[in-house]
Every structure is written in structure tokens, then in C-alpha cells.
């Protein structure tokens, strides 16, 4: 008798995915599909029968007449637009809740349709107290109950369960936010601007290990593009732009922070500080053909010339270690210095440069690709959405009618930041400071002639 989870793995395109993973390689999209299917399968195996009935809207008699394969595929489709990590969080929350209800002898009412507020509150408070009791100074455990609540929220939204989440949320201990001034100062440091010229040169070194050259390219590209490393693993190049005597790349990535992975357009300058674009083309040559990721997995120790790049994305958990290794080998940082920087450091460099130069807030929003920037979702808004929401579409029409102008505006901003970076490096070179001792006060100040 097959389990519900095993049925989810029986799909016509699984042979293609298996051959890709053990043969010519696989893309980030294929990897996500496999991991999502795997996590969905594990979740379905722990779903109680009553929970399935609630999700399907069927009575026990109707459920018995349905094809198990259709049921499994339908349940899997419920999680097709959620990241594997979120599915795993939902499964963990469900397992803990079911174990608690079994231990306490509490049952669900109306075929898994209702759980009393008191019972859910008691469960979450036990999660909270257990986590705090086992907590440490670095991880005190205050977020445990809120993480379980989030996982249950995914199940409620996707499986049509009725859980009193909103009512219980107001009763939980206030989440101790770490978003204060001290944590922001102690958070991820911006990557020092001083490393960019070193990365550009290292990418083009033919005597360097190929894996480290590829990783140096990924770090340099994500820095000048202000990319999250998660988004660097879901990217597609699709066009070039010439503006102001410089070349730019137009690419698109999926926003890894959104469940639906909203696509975004980014503009990347191709010339380095010496006006040469060799670093980009040499770096692209280190990646497998057609790759939709920048950080590639490897075979063999990456510091050796015998290592080679594999046609599959580097696991996300390994990116930070790879980033620090590049900083040590390619840039000459000590291990202690490199440990100060995280996956988020590259995204902060150009925004910090603009902030130090006193650039307008709008400029910083453009560099960070945040909401209401020039290259927001209106650049890619489907025509069908416009048809269905015509009364609201007029608000987006000025943005949609000026796509070329908006792209060139971002390119102009990037040109100014590269000039600002070059000016900073010149000012610092004769100031007697340490190699990676960033001095933001030396960054050339913004002039209104630059525009916004």
C-alpha cells in the first residue's frame, strides 16, 4: 500500500528531473521543484485523515470513492507556490501540535474543522516555555512560538482549516524585536568597497582555481547589482543596454522573499573602475551554459586548480562559507576579517555608498530595488491583470509607458555610484588607513547636478 507521500513523487516529469540531477546538471528551478515536492510529500504523510477531508471538502464516503493519485496531486498543488523551507516549517508545526493533542487527550471537533482557542493557546505557550528553557544568549527562544504560529497559518491558508490563530496571536507574549538601533549597527556589515577592484581582477585571472573565480564573479555581480544571494540563485540574463558611454546588463530574478516569487528587473554595470568589462564575460564563462544561478556547486576542494564547477546551484547554506573563502583568497582578508561579513553584506554596499555620499532617498531606493522603485512590478505587470483591473490600471500606466526611461534612470544612478566609488578609493589611498578599514566619511558628497 503506497503512502500519500510516495504518491506525490510519482509524476511524469520525475524521470526528467532525475536524469538532470545525475547527468547534465540541473537548474535552480528544477532543484526548487524537487525540494518542494519532497517537502510536500513529507507533509502529506503526517496529515490526519480528517485534515485531508477538510482540505478536500469531502465527506468520508465521498473520499473513499476518489482516486488516491488525484488526491495526492491536488494536495501537492496546494503548496506549489511556497518555498520548501516554509513547507518544512508547516510540517514541523503540525507534528508538534498533533503530538501535544495526543499527549493531552484533546481532539479536533467537526472533522478537523475547529480547535478551541484555549487548547491552541496552551500548546503555543508550552512551545514558548520549552524554547526559553533551552535558549541561549544568542538564541533565547522568544521566536519559537511565533514560528509555529506561522507554520500553522500556512496550513490554515492552504488547507482551509479553521484555527483561531488571530485570537490566540493577541494572547501570546510580545515578540522581542531585534530591529532596534543596537541590532542594526551590529547586523550584517556592508561589504567593503575596497574589495570590488580585487574581485574584478581575480575573476579574470587564468591562473586562479576555477571554482574560486566563479564564486568571485558571483560576489562581484551581486555587489554591483545589490542582490540578495537568494535571488542570485534564480536569475536570467536577457539584454544589454548602452547608456552614457557604458554597457549595462538587464536581467531578471525571482524575489526569494515572496511566496509567489515576484519577478524583478535589475540593471548591472558591466565596466569595472578601469572601464573594462572583461570581468563580466570571463565570469560568465566560468558558469555552466544556461545556468540560472550565480553560485555554482563544485567538485573537489575549491582552493585547488583541479576543482571544477558543477552544473547545479550551490546549496544556500554553503553560500556564506563560499563568500568568506573568496574574501580570504581573492582579496587577502584574514579569516577573522572575513567572518564579519554575511550573505547580506554584498546587498548593502552600494546603498551604503549612496547614504554616505548624502544621496537622495529616492536614489537609495533605486539601488536597493525596494517597493515603488523605477523597476518595480509595473514593469512586468501582465496585460491580463490590467484588463481585469482597468479602473486601477490607470495608476500604473505612467510607469508602464516609460519603461525605457526608467531603466536609463537606474543606469544613470549606477554611473554616479561608480564614480563615487572611484573617488572614494583615490581619497583613501593616501590617507594611511588599513586596507579594509572602510572610511565612509571620505566618500564624495552628492551634488544636485547628478539628479535623482
Instruction: Give the biggest beta sheet.
Output: 3 strands, antiparallel
Order of strands in the sheet with most strands: 1-2-3
Give the strand content. 5-15%
Which segments are poorly predicted (pLDDT under 50) over 5 or more consecutive residues?
A: 4-23, 179-183, 381-397
Helix/strand/pairing class, anyone?
mainly alpha
Q: Indicate the mean pLDDT.
A: 83
* Fourth-level CATH superfamily of the largest domain: Intergrase catalytic core
CATH fold topology of the largest domain: hpI Integrase, Chain A
- CATH architectural grouping of the largest domain: Orthogonal Bundle
Name the shape in a single word.
elongated
- How many domains? The number is 2
Number of DSSP helices? 23
- Summarize the helix and strand pattern as letters: HHHHHHHHHHHHHHEEEHEEHHHHHHHH
Amino acid at each position: 500500500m503506497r503512502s500519500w507521500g510516495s504518491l506525490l513523487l510519482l509524476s511524469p516529469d520525475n524521470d526528467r528531473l532525475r536524469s538532470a540531477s545525475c547527468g547534465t546538471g540541473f537548474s535552480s528551478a528544477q532543484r526548487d521543484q524537487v525540494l518542494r515536492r519532497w517537502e510536500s510529500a513529507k507533509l502529506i504523510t503526517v496529515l490526519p485523515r480528517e485534515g485531508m477531508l477538510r482540505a478536500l471538502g469531502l465527506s468520508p464516503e465521498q473520499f473513499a470513492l476518489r482516486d488516491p493519485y488525484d488526491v495526492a496531486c491536488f494536495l501537492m498543488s496546494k503548496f506549489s507556490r511556497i518555498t520548501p523551507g516554509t513547507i518544512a516549517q508547516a510540517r514541523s508545526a503540525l507534528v508538534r501540535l498533533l503530538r501535544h493533542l495526543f499527549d493531552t487527550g484533546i481532539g479536533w471537533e467537526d472533522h478537523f474543522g475547529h480547535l478551541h482557542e484555549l487548547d491552541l493557546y496552551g500548546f503555543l505557550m508550552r512551545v514558548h516555555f520549552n524554547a526559553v528553557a533551552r535558549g541561549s544568549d544568542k538564541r533565547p527562544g522568544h521566536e519559537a512560538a511565533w514560528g509555529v504560529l506561522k507554520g500553522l497559518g500556512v496550513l490554515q491558508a492552504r488547507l482551509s482549516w479553521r484555527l483561531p490563530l488571530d485570537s490566540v496571536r493577541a494572547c501570546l507574549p510580545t515578540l522581542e524585536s531585534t530591529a532596534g538601533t543596537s541590532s542594526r549597527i551590529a547586523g550584517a556589515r556592508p561589504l567593503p568597497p575596497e574589495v570590488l577592484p580585487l574581485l574584478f581582477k581575480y575573476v579574470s585571472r587564468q591562473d586562479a582555481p576555477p571554482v574560486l573565480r566563479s564564486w568571485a564573479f558571483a560576489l562581484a555581480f551581486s555587489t554591483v547589482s545589490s542582490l540578495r544571494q537568494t535571488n542570485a540563485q534564480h536569475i536570467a540574463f536577457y539584454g544589454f543596454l548602452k547608456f552614457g558611454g557604458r554597457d549595462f546588463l538587464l536581467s531578471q530574478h525571482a524575489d526569494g522573499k515572496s511566496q509567489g516569487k515576484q519577478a524583478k528587473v535589475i540593471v548591472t554595470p558591466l565596466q569595472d573602475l578601469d572601464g573594462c568589462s572583461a570581468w563580466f564575460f570571463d565570469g560568465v564563462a566560468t558558469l555552466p551554459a544556461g545556468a540560472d544561478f550565480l553560485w555554482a556547486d563544485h567538485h573537489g576542494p575549491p582552493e585547488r586548480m583541479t576543482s571544477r564547477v558543477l552544473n547545479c546551484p550551490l546549496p544556500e547554506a554553503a553560500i556564506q562559507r563560499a563568500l568568506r573563502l573568496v574574501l580570504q583568497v581573492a582579496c587577502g582578508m584574514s579569516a577573522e576579517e572575513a567572518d564579519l561579513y554575511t550573505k547580506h553584506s554584498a546587498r548593502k554596499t552600494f546603498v551604503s555608498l549612496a547614504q554616505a555620499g548624502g544621496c537622495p532617498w529616492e536614489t537609495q531606493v533605486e539601488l536597493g530595488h525596494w517597493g515603488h522603485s523605477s523597476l518595480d512590478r509595473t514593469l512586468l505587470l501582465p496585460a491580463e491583470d490590467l484588463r481585469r483591473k482597468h479602473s486601477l490600471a490607470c495608476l500604473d500606466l505612467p510607469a508602464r509607458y516609460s519603461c525605457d526611461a526608467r531603466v536609463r534612470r537606474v543606469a544613470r544612478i549606477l554611473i554616479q555610484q561608480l564614480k563615487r566609488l572611484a573617488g572614494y578609493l583615490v581619497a583613501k589611498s593616501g590617507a594611511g588607513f588599513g586596507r579594509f578599514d572602510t572610511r565612509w566619511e571620505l566618500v564624495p558628497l552628492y551634488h544636485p547636478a547628478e539628479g535623482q
